[in-house]
Amino acid sequence: MKNRGAIRGVIKHRQTEEYYAGDGGWTEDKEEAKVFQSLSALVDEALKYNIRDCCEFILAYEENPGFDVYLPL
Fold it and tell me: What's the whole-model pTM score?
C-alpha cells in the first residue's frame, strides 16, 4: 500500500478567520495553529472549549497542496 503522506488538521473560525492555537486561544498565523492528528483529539478539544457552530476543521494533505477538505464544526 502506498503512503499518501501526512495530513494536517487545523480549526479555523469562520467569522474572525483566526486559527485555533490550543488551550482555548486563537492566532492569525496558520503556522501557529494547533495541529490535530486524529478526529477523536479534535472532538475532545472542541467539547472542552465549546468550539461549535462557529468554525471549520480543515484537513490539508501535504502531497496535494490546495486540495483541502473543510468540515463544519
Answer: 0.84
